[in-house]
Design brief:
This protein is mainly beta and about 300 residues long. It has one helix at about 295-300, and strands spanning about 20-25, 30-35, 40-45, 50-55, 60-65, 70-75, 85-90, 95-100, 105-110, 115-120, 130-135, 140-145, 150-155, 160-165, 170-175, 185-190, 195-205, 210-215, 225-230, 230-240, 240-245, 250-255, 260, 265-270, 280-285, 290-295. It is built from 1 helix and 26 strands.
Length: about 300
């Protein structure tokens, strides 16, 4: 059963200069400014184990996904961290991924263990299942949306798929240059709606370095980008910029209580046009990162004018 609730207020930031990056970690959803390199706000405490985030700028709302809930809160300055779920599951199914359609005011999410794609109005009403799988998908990575192209795109262990926004016309997006190999795995996925390209991490068994790839929605225009460490937890792309969060070198220290391992997470940035241009943007003072999302209000205000073009 899917239930709908009213929404309480949440502390957030107002729009500021520079691209904001929403990062979901074990400390909640934080906002980092890629221009100043500073953390600008802590939006949510992670009591519900939040693992994905998205936003709808025109409605001034931010959405977060947990295992059993999707939470919606206003993008306005308040003094409260309170929030309530938009939808949640009372059955055996748990949420896997989420995407917000800011053009058509629609919410999509996947649930499992039997893979299904759900759709509802932005407030959680008018819920329906638009695609019901026939198998247990334990390696589903992420579902993303391009509302202008009319596509939902998601990844499994070694394949990437797309479907129309009504759940019909499912297609496999082939990248024979790397996917299809029995040892390759899709580790993460991102969309650049401004150029209608998808980015993904390809990992191989026993390799310490993963490969950043991209291509058009139909599988054409394949390109390799900067290699990244094996412990890369999130990626995002927009225009000429590619971002990822990776764990840096781990150090081991000794105390009377025994050995303790320390590591840091950092946000990196590179040009999609020029491999080898990666730069370290800032430290993330958190223990574990689940996901990230570029939050660019100007993009959602002007994205209705976007046309298809290759990078």
């Amino acid at each position: 059963m899917w239930c709908v609730f009213d929404v309480a207020l949440l502390t957030f930031i107002t729009a500021s200069h520079g691209i904001q990056v929403l990062v979901v970690s074990n400390k909640g959803v934080s906002v980092y400014n890629t221009t100043s390199g500073e953390q600008t706000s802590l939006m949510m405490e992670n009591e519900q184990m939040m693992k994905e985030v998205d936003y709808h700028y025109a409605r001034k709302e931010v959405f977060a996904l947990t295992k059993r809930q999707i939470i919606r809160c206003p993008l306005t300055m308040t003094s409260s961290y309170e929030y309530r779920p938009v939808v949640y599951s009372e059955d055996e199914y748990s949420f896997m991924s989420m995407a917000v359609d800011w053009v058509h005011d629609t919410l999509y999410w996947t649930a499992g263990p039997v893979f299904m794609i759900h759709r509802s109005a932005i407030d959680g009403s008018d819920h329906t299942v638009i695609f019901r799988g026939y198998y247990i998908e334990t390696y589903h990575k992420k579902m993303l949306i391009d509302p202008h192209a009319g596509l939902l795109i998601w990844a499994t262990a070694s394949q990437i798929y797309s479907t129309n926004l009504d759940g019909k016309n499912i297609k496999k997006i082939d990248f024979p240059e790397v996917l299809g190999n029995v040892k390759s795995r899709v580790k993460n996925l991102a969309l650049d709606v401004t150029r209608r390209r998808l980015y993904f991490l390809a990992g191989f068994e026993d390799d310490d370095v993963w490969l950043m790839m991209s291509g058009n929605y139909d599988g054409s225009g394949f390109r390799r980008h900067d290699p990244v460490p094996r412990y890369t937890y999130a990626i995002a792309a927009m225009g000429d910029d590619l971002y990822w969060i990776a764990k840096e070198v781990m150090e081991t220290t000794y105390s009377p209580r025994g050995f303790k391992k320390h590591h840091t997470l950092a946000l990196y940035k590179a040009s999609v046009q020029a491999p080898g241009t990666s730069e370290r943007v800032l430290d993330l003072h958190t223990g574990a990162v689940w996901n990230m999302k570029i939050c660019d209000p100007e993009f959602q205000r002007t994205s209705s004018n976007i046309t298809s073009r290759s990078a």
